[in-house]
Fold these 4 entries.
Entry 1:
Amino acid sequence: MILMSGQMYKVYLMPVLLGIVLLSACGDGANRSEVYEPVSYAVGDTVDVEGSLIDSQCFTMNKANSGMDHPHPVPTSQTGPACARYCAINGIPVAIALDSPNADVWMLLSNPQVLADYMGQHVKVRAIVRSRGVFIPERVEARLSDGSWTFVM
Amino acid sequence: MKKFLPLFLATAFIFAGTMVPSEADLVTVTGTLVDTRCYGMMPEANIGNTHKMMKGDKMVDAPKCATACAGMGIPAGIVEGGKAGNKTYVLITPTSQLKKHMAKQARVTGKIAYEGAIMPTKIEVKDDGKWKDVTPKAMM
């Protein structure tokens, strides 16, 4: 085993250790998907939840894509304004980011076109729990700017 | 130059770490393409293209229901192993482009985006014993 002198430790080992620490802090790169741990509901239960309607595709690529307008649309050739509406009209499934500490994301098994005009808005949903992370929505209402609620589906 | 070598090595180490693609995030699921809503209501009855549905107080058959639902934009999913009740993943993709392939044996490769949902990078279905790429085209 080759032993390094104390001086060589300082010169070579310390920067490598610094690199390890910084790498750990940064995570393992932009390609990692974030797996959300949803809140726990029993399968088959009917639940009432509130949250925001999101485009499931653009949101998973960049969490800044949570409103109607996407600062980072997917694909990049797509324009940002009203991107969420465009995605929903074109059949990308809509999801709800719940009002929970983790903003848990649950997929909504419904025609996304019906929800297209309400993307990014705060909604309340009555739904059947299909499986972890998946709702069958029975009723969706959206909150308007004056605080009142409007029936969506 | 020698003075900067350790700093360069550390920088390269960090950079290399951030650029390595996370292959562990890619999954491949083989199973059956389903209309997630009807299948979710009655998994055993609605794993194929003909679905059972209530008409009045009777249960009737609705032929090509999965195709119709996919055409309307109801999210498609894949039932792992093709057996009703198995783990099901919602596919984050334009569903209408898959409507001709509902109820077929499928192989989906992609990343787990959320619990119960896959962002597919490749979708294949078995046609005449061969795998055929039917990945929906990205929106432009």
Entry 2:
Amino acid sequence: MTLVLEAAVLGVLTGGVYALMASGLTLIFGVMRIINVGHGALVVLGAYLSFAVWRSLHIDPFVTLLLTMPAMFGLGVVLEMVFIRPLKSDRDALSVLVTYALALGIEGVLGYFFTTNYVQLHAWYDTASFPVGGFRVTYVYLIGFLLCLLILGALFFILYRTTFGASIRATMLNRTAAQLIGVDVDRVSAVAFGIGMATAAAGGVVFGITNAFNPGSHYDLISRLLTIIVLGGLGSLRGAIIAALVMLVSEDITSVVISPVWASFVFFVILVVVLLVRPQGLYGVRVRDRI
Amino acid sequence: MTPQQMKLARWLGLAGLFVLALLVPIIAPDPATTNIAVFTMMYVGLATAWNIMGGYTGYVSLGHAGFFGFGSYALGLMLAHLGVKAGYGPFLFVPIAGLLTAVLALGIGWFALRTRAATFVIVTIAFMFMLQLLAENLVGLTGGGGGLSFPVPTWGGDFFNTPFYYAMLALASIGLLVSWVIRHSKFGLGLLAIRDDEDKALAVGVPTRAFKLTAFVISACLVGMIGGVYGYYVTYIYPQFVVDPLIGISMVLMVFLGGLGTISGPVLGALILEPAQLWLAYNYGASRLYLVLYAAVFLVVILLMPRGILPSVSELISRRRTSAGPPATAAARTVPR
């Protein structure tokens, strides 16, 4: 029983990271109606950027975010303007191809500079732990979870308490209508992509300190992130957060109760069952012809 | 030229191309070239098969690598359990592998086609990873990460690639024939209607669900058969190698390059991209730059020609024709006498 409880707690803590990464992805979908298959590669890119800064400046991995998040935000704005904006027709399919190409390119560049050997970020607290009830929790999971909560909080603040957030939400609801009332949807799209990449940078640090990673790690990440946002309902932040928690908790419990190799399979089964009942996902809005 | 003559010229051209394809192993018998020919013909088949679903109905599946891998495993396991000897025998089991893939696709499609557009894309990706995971975890059946060996063909030397080339050519030709028949049938019209506006298609009486599912199953069946031949060709497979997202996305890119929803577009796309991909892998495969270059090819193709070569070129020709033909009415009217 303690084991299951421990798995559930760990699932919630690591679920926070996936919630952060998935909310960036679902935000990008919501605003631009594109599937960013390169999101996993962006997370890995963020992890490598932090790794490079951490190795050369010898500062705490989490502090590197002060440098990497603005850098990734800027890169995101540029990527959106150069690669996503020119896509006019068939956005569903073409955006998948373009972002997949970006993922391959990032994987290739990272492999060129950092080789394909596995690396990991380290800090003094990544093995230290504290007792909770009958088991111990490693500090790094708790710190990562708190960081993710902080950034998710900031994201919700921007979206629901600022004027710019209102124009983002307006664009998500109806792009044409937003344009008609004077929202500069192109600018909103670029900034939303930048925000998505900045959250990927933050997710990357937590991912890189809790996992060993290499340039090819993005395949595993993106398959999880995509299933999370579909389960939550495309474009829904709340859905993404809940689905991330469901995924990680169910995975961790499966690994202790059945076997680690079946962990991600259980999530796929949950996805199938949910989509049978609600094809639009947990919090998705059923738009005719769209979803 | 009269329309009859043009039709005749087109058929003669097609027959000439087919004869040329038949002669490839005789014209260039060295193994390096025939190896490229096998892979190119494989992608001609894959892109054509994908186009039947993705091009005609507009439902983009990124999970076709799952059917490819499933067909591969289906053939490999049949050969192992039935004790089929190496030689030409295994080719006879390829249609059965295709049939099994079709049954799988019926199940997956029945479920996946409840969703549309972006959700459908992601659900197909999820199913692909699910199949990969199953191939890895069902160690007792598939051998798991240890992989699965096929019987090694009895022939060798320069001739080794040739039977596989003809097998791929046969499957690609069947695919093209099926694609042609569908495009010229009422069923094909229904599929195109679904692509243009599914709700209206349903309203005017197209049985959209049955049509989509049929196209999905046909497409997957062809891909599964090609996967089977591929497995026998490489003689050793493991989950990440045959259920490879890169295979799934390559066929999609080829269709987009050639022309989505056209019959010959996927062929053109495969003929251009696959040799280019092999060339890049051969020359830059040692460094990770190969991936960067391939990504660059991808981006150039999509950003410069989002509609594909064939539609762009045919639009250009028809525009040229109208401006070069008898004095255009609009121009004639504006010029004062």
Entry 3:
Amino acid sequence: MKARFQVGDAVRVADRWPEAGPARCHVRTPHFLRGRSGTVERVLGEFPNAEELAFGKPGLPKVPLYTIKFRETELWADGGFRLQDTLTADLYEHWLEGTHG
Amino acid sequence: MHDLGGVEPLASAAIDRREHALTQFDKHVDALMYLLSHPSRRILRVDELRRAIESLSPDAYANLSYYEKWLQAMRDLLVEKAVLGADEIESKLAELRARDRAAALPLPGAGVP
């Protein structure tokens, strides 16, 4: 699967909560990043989907994985962070949406 | 019970940076996981282990040690994947406990002056 995003692209993490549904699931996207916007810091390559590996499935086709950088001030209301403080997380492509503007 | 970023009261708790020596139990559990996940067998994968650890009850998650969580998760996965039966594990445990109790009894005549 070809990587859809490149370094510097603005992306938004899907505001999805599959763990709240009835089906068993396993996700690798921290709750505090859902619905938040960041930028692509690195394109890491493609990897078997850990959400399926977690249930003993092969996790194919492989999914592109990215390091996404967020401003701490975008994530926490009152953490005492400065504007230049950032947090990075490795996220699978199917959790990312492109943003416009 | 695992996705704890920013969750109080952990959000502001200090991180314990001391080194912890591994116990014999810890090493046994680590070795078991190595054997179960070895490519020649691939009975369990680390991704499954992580999912099973994350599925522990909040009480178990808070109170078990790191490797106790591994062991409970390995047990749950082996039962889920029908590699071992829950009854099978229980009866083996009962057998081992009985053996240990027997071994702890003083030998006949021991301690007699």
Entry 4:
Amino acid sequence: MSVERNDVDISRLFMWGKEFEIEGNNEEKLTVFLRLIGDADLNKARVYALRSSSHLRNKLKEKDSDERLAYIPETGSVEREILVEAIAMLSIREYAQEAVKEVDIPYPVEPDSDAKLEKQEKYQAQVDAYPAKRDKKINEYIVKKTDERKKELNVMTDEQLFGLYEGAIISELCENEMLKKFKEFSTYSGIFNDSKYRDKTFSSLEEFQNLPFEIKEKFMVAYSELEIEQSTLKKSLQATL
Amino acid sequence: MWTTARELRIPLDTRLEELYDIPHTISFVMRKKIQVDNLSSLPKDKRPPTKMMWEGTPEEIDTFLERVYGKNEDTTTDVLITDIEG
């Protein structure tokens, strides 16, 4: 169940750093301090992530590149039905974003401050039911759009379908690359040796990226636990208005 | 920053010594609050719908303000923040 504005814990906003103990492969423990990064580092992370995804996109479009050979199948090697399903599935993210904008369910109207208890209870019940009601509408929107898309795809030529499939695969891979690099950079920028967050643990992004996979993942999971989704941040604000 | 801390009724963390130190989440909340406060102070008939104030992109809000005020009037809202977040 998602957090609604009546349940938002505003104090979480101020829990932006923590001590973190990590165990290496040789059972040696290291204590570091993680903190959410500020706007300047966030911007650096964004720029780095965009450059990385752009680099991957160019490689994927380059004939005979390793990346293209690894991820993009040859024309004609995939059946029509699979292409249609894959394109439809890869469009879901786009439809979900659209749905959030398009689906408009009015938020329950708050009763007057001196409203009777029963009225306040009714309002709270409407607030509690709101996320499920909204999620249902969003799901319906996505299913409807996906079905419509499949109908459009089914009448296309094999060549058109493959072109769309290739575009969708490239978009998905680049989106994932962008997110991965953004998280890596953010985490690297938020790890310190001291509780005042002045002495960085890793001297470069490369040093962090070259960590064993499991250790890097532990850092990234620990950092992500400090993050607060933007929708929750907005609700925390709405709760104070 | 202090105004927002007071509004939120939570003391600001004493570890935040420099503006640079402010975590992006707190920074976002402060900017969004200023934006919503500014837009809410507009006359009711010129004010963007609540959903747009919270969910709209800066471009959507700009377009709305240009429409209700006419392009040449001053539609300054002080802070229009992007919705891109980590």
